[in-house]
């Protein structure tokens, strides 16, 4: 368990926002309007906060396979962390916020933890909580820094499509889909070419771990929410492209669970193979993917 909590509130951040050992990162973003988050940041952000973009900074190059938001090239990403002054030796305390009920903040929280940096928290309630507390915003852009970040990759935290295919029906394996129930059931699909879900997966909508106002539910409530999961099992969490699945992983950690495995490619990776084979929604339960796919 890290010394720094997983979650901080606006009062804590207001008392520490000027600390030299604290770095604040704004990751506001909109899948429907990719430029919106940066525009919001430029219009006003928590003083001293840096901005990282989901597409440009928190994701790698989109390829034929790997999903819509593949994990970034790690050396490139580490250099970005150095430029905003994150150090491993001190270590720097990182606070992340968004305006979307942890959707994008959890992605960066998971990435930093994946790289071995444990001193990272998310601002409860996001930018709305900061403003509701009467705190001011700034348009000033912080200066580039020279950090010293040394990554320690937790390579066993992720699985690829081949691993999911081979293990999903095994004893003691649970695959958790973080998307909305409608997308999970294949009734709608606003983003990917094929609707549906990985056969055998269970659904746990990522928004159910927070309130409508964007605050994380209590640790006790989250423990109850995830009570049916056996921490000793092999648990894999996915979503559309490895973003909101991290909200579930974050809430599981707050509830006291270990870090389960992320399938970063998610449904966008899975259904890309189906599309190649000409398999539609009605064929999903027929198996669609062979070992050589």
How is this structure best described in words?
Helix content is 28%, strand content 11%. By secondary structure, it is of the alpha/beta class. It folds into 2 domains: 7-153, 3-Layer(aba) Sandwich (Oxidized Rhodanese, domain 1), CATH 3.40.250.10; 156-286, 3-Layer(aba) Sandwich (Oxidized Rhodanese, domain 1). Strands 1-5-4-2-3 form a 5-stranded parallel β-sheet. It has a 4-stranded parallel β-sheet with strand order 7-6-8-9, with helices on one face. Helix 4 (105-114) packs across helix 9 (245-254). Mean pLDDT is 93; it is low at 280-293.
CA(first)-CA(last) distance: 39 Å
For the record, the CATH class of the largest domain is: Alpha Beta
Mean pLDDT level? 93
Overall shape: it is: globular
**What is the share of helical residues?**
25-40%
User: Roughly how many Å is the radius of gyration?
Assistant: 19 Å
H/E element order: EHEHEHEHEHHEHEHEHEH
Low-confidence regions: 280-293
Our count of helices gives 10
Strand order of the largest sheet: 1-5-4-2-3
CATH topology of the largest domain: Oxidized Rhodanese, domain 1
Number of domains: 2
Query: What's the CATH H-level superfamily name of the largest domain?
Result: Rhodanese-like domain
Largest sheet geometry: 5 strands, parallel
